[in-house]
Structure formats: C-alpha cells, structure tokens
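Reopening this ticket.

The earlier resolution said the output was attached, but the attachment link was broken on my side. Pasting everything inline this time so it's all in one place.
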Amino acid sequence: MADRILVVEDERITAADLHDTLQELGYIVTGVVSTGAEAILEAERNRPDIVLMDIRIRGDLDGTETALILRDRFNIPAVYLTAHADRETLDRAKRSRPLGYIVKPFQRDELQANIEIAIDAHRRTLRAQQRYQNLTDVLSAVLLGTISIDRKEIVILFNPAAENLTGWGRDEVLGNQVSRVFRLLDVSSGMPIELLLERVLNDNLLAEFNDALLVDKSGRTKPVAGNIAPVHGIAGGGAGVTGRASGAVILFEATPPRPEDPYFKATAKQQGEEGSLTFDDFQIVAASPRMKQLLTVSLRVARSEVPAILIEGETGTGKDLLAQFIHHFSSRRARPFVAVNCSAIPDALLESELFG
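Inline output:
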C-alpha cells in the first residue's frame, strides 16, 4: 500500500507542484491545505503517514506549532519544507522533533529520499513504542512489585503491585529517583541497605536482597525480598556504552522466597554440608550459590502469574529444564507443558507472535 502524505503549503504554485510530484513518485496525497487549522482537521479525517510542512504559513498557527499539535494529538511526524534556515527558525523547528528539514528550492530526488527515510524512521519508532507498551502491559499485570528504572536511576515504570507494597502512587513516582520511593533497611540492624544499582547497571550482574524491611510512604516497614536485574533496550535508556545495561528492573514481594521461608520449605530441602537444595517432586539439585540464586528468582517468577517469560542462553545450558521448573511451580502446573524449538521459527515470525 502506498504511503500517505499531507501537504501544508500556502504558496499555490509550490503546493500544486508538490501534489503532482508526490503522485508521480507513487505516494497518496491525502490533502493539500494552507493553514494549520486546516491541517489539523484534514489529519483527523484522513490520517497521513507524514506531513510535508512549510514553516511560515497563513493563519494563527505557524508550521512548527501545527507540527507539534499533529505529533502530540495524532502521532504524525513532519518533514519541513522551507525557504528559511536561520538559527531562530531551526531552533523553533526542533521543538516539534521533525523527521526531516528540506530547504527550498529542492530537487525531486532529495524530496523522495527525505520522505522515505522519515517514513521508515517513524515506523521503527511505532514498532518500538508497541513493544514497550506490550512490555508495560505485561509488567503491570505481574503480581510482584515491579519498578523499572533507566541508567540515571529514574523510575519509568511502577506497577500496581509496587503501589500496594510501597504506598506510593504511580503518578507520584514516575520521573523521580528510585531511592526516594524504594528504601530498604536491614532487618537485624535497622541500617539502610544499598541497592547496588551501579553494579547492576555497569557490570550486568543480578543483585538480590533478603532480610530486608521496605519503608513505605507512611514510614511503616514490612519484610520483603527480591532482586534487581539489568535490562537492555529500555525506552529512554539511551544507547549507553556497549555491553552495559540501559536500565534495570526491581522485582520484590512481601513474602521472601528463601530456604527458611514456609513456601520454599514446602518445595525444597537443604542437603549436605554445602546446603544444596533438592526439590522432592522435581528432579533438580542446586549446590552452587549462583544456581541457588537462579532457582530462587525462578520461583519468584513462577508465582508472578506473568503471561510470558523469555529465557535466553547458549545451547545446552538447560533452558528447557528451567522452563519446566517454572511451569511446575506456577499456577499452570495442572496444564500440559509443551516444548517448542524456537530456533526452527523464523525471527520475523517469532517477533510477530511475541509483539503482535
């Protein structure tokens, strides 16, 4: 299907030339208007993929103001067509985050190249936004307290379970430092517990906290346990340094899943001097600290009721066994476990199924 373009240009000759050129290039011109008010009405009636926008147009709204409204209201980006490239005009144009800036007079090839790049960039952004929205929807449904932060330790996601456990509302914490709303004390000494966020963000390591008291908004404390994991590709996290996390996610709950915990005792028992964990009704043994940590986190994930879990790792590292372990200790254990070889599924199809 051809891409759809709205033209906002108050010079009749230029507007007519643009209309004919775009049609010759194979685009659908949804409309040609000369004012910002007309552009907004036309965009609402016939949603274009992008807008070719002159900056200085007739009416109460100039091109930059109109472009900002179209982006905020309809998520339609603009490519500017203008005879002006002075610093003041450029600064005004940047406020609406355009996907292109073409100075008149322009060439046909230049016009097409800018349009193609702008449309491709916008579609990539839409796909990323959809993926992030899917992730947000999933995390919002998780029964564990879930806090997502960027590299600056700013809260960018705060799910309902986190609201219930901390006493803070989502709108109160988004955009604030996580240290303001998530404070932990050692259960024995009452001293503050460091979250080790720098270690998680810079070294890609998982951090756990047990024997902790969460200080809620009212100052009351409650015992919690959880972990902090690095995350790559968080919206707003930026590209960062190669190999470093773009953010982190904190998962926590009021009932700590530890060997001393009643829930954990029902499923695992300590064996031997090294304190290995053996699960009576599931054939898996954990002896090393890293393996114990992995199974502790996996039990927490199993109880979270999250609808989808992604397990990554090299071939032969036991991903299938871990998936069976999570299934076994989840509420879905009565249903059959079906293993699928994802390596046999094309990446494009798998991505489509995961992210709609």
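Reporter confirms the inline version is readable. The CA atoms of residues 23 and 29 lie 7 Å apart. The first helix runs from residue 12 to 24.
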